[in-house]
Amino acid sequence: MFGPPCSRTTRPAIGKLPEMNPSDALVTPQQVDIVYETDQPVTYEVVDAVAWIMMNRPGFNNAQNGQMTYALDDAFQRATADDAVRCIVLGGNGKHFSAGHDIGTPGRDLHQPFENRLMVPGHVNKPAAELLYTREKEQYVGMCRRWRDVAKPTIAMVQGACVAGGLMLAWVCDLIVASDDAFFQDPVNRMGIPGVEYFAHAYELPPRIAKEFLLLGERMSAQRAEQFGMVNKIVSRDELRPTVTAMAAKLVAQPRLGNWLTKQAINHVEELMGKRNAMEAQYHMHHFAHAQNDLVQGSSIAGLDAKAMAEANKKQAGE
């Protein structure tokens, strides 16, 4: 008897590997002098079961660089992991909550590599528009979504300016308490960009007001923001921390799981309303605008640095 014929494994011939697409070529990271004015861009303390996370670059109005972003993530992680913490407050030391993303201080670290926290590759060796697209997917929209979903109630304590990237940090919090001199602003249409990356504008404001907010880029007072439900409570600057402390104490006294479930329930409603999908769509418009600026003006932010933006904002406000 003859057995079954021996099977023969056929290996495909190894030919020449396809050539890499030129757009896939990695680049040598830029070497840029970065001067951090502090090694503690965020402070952290726990008082009566409340974690106080405070941005700590007051000399630069708490402009957010990568160093601060990862320090914020460390603080949120620490508060989440600590069962003794029942509520989280996010604030900023100094005159202002946050003037937004760092686009002009000595500590601007656009080309600084960090150990990424999300499923996003490193950015510093990516060419052209891919560099910003990758970095902001991790450090901006990705981090903000991560902090929004923290399992504990969060309060933003806002004084003075809450501009552009500052909005993103306030909006990820469950509650916002503002001083009576606080204002909110997203002036990036001046750069040809349709709003910051965590695009919650049309969920924080009615659509026509959101258009006004972005198209004109003017300051919105805390009082007007409260009318639209973007701010929960307004107090004097002197009463800001005591008021937030009292509100946090009430949240601490509520059931832990109840706080988490309530937060998830409302967040889920926003998702059913398309919030994440809207952000995904706008994120690509945002980066199309960056790429257009680079092609036309040689600068992804249309040649406007922090000083130029601040001067334009003050002029618009009549200061």
How would you briefly describe this protein structure?
This protein is α/β, with parallel strands linked by helices and 319 residues long.
Q: How does this model look, in words?
A:
The chain has a single domain, classed as 2-enoyl-CoA Hydratase, Chain A, domain 1, CATH 3.90.226.10. 41% of the residues lie in helices and 12% in strands. The protein has helices spanning 66-81, 128-148, 165-171, 201-204, 207-216, 222-227, 237-253, 256-272, 275-297, 306-316; strands at residues 42-47, 50-55, 87-92, 154-158, 161-163, 175-179, 183-185, 220-221, 233-235. Strand 1 (42-47) and strand 2 (50-55) form a beta hairpin. The longest helix has 23 residues, at 275-297. The chain is globular and about 65 Å long. The N and C termini lie far apart (101 Å). The mean pLDDT is 94.
Under CATH, the homologous superfamily reads 2-enoyl-CoA Hydratase, Chain A, domain 1
The average pLDDT value, as a whole number, equals 94
- Roughly what fraction of the amino acids lie in strands? 5-15%
By secondary-structure content and strand pairing, the structural class works out as alpha/beta
Number of alpha- plus pi-helical segments? 10
What is the N-to-C order of secondary-structure elements (H for helix, E for strand)?
A: EEHEHEEHEEHHEHEHHHH
Assign an overall shape.
globular
The radius of gyration is: 23 Å
Mind telling me which CATH architecture this is?
A: Alpha-Beta Complex
Largest sheet composition: 6 strands, mixed
CATH class: Alpha Beta
Share of helix, binned: 40-55%
Structural domain tally: 1
Distance between the termini: 101 Å
Return the CATH topology.
2-enoyl-CoA Hydratase, Chain A, domain 1
Topology, number of strands? 9
Low-pLDDT stretches: none
Strand order of the largest sheet: 1-2-3-4-6-9
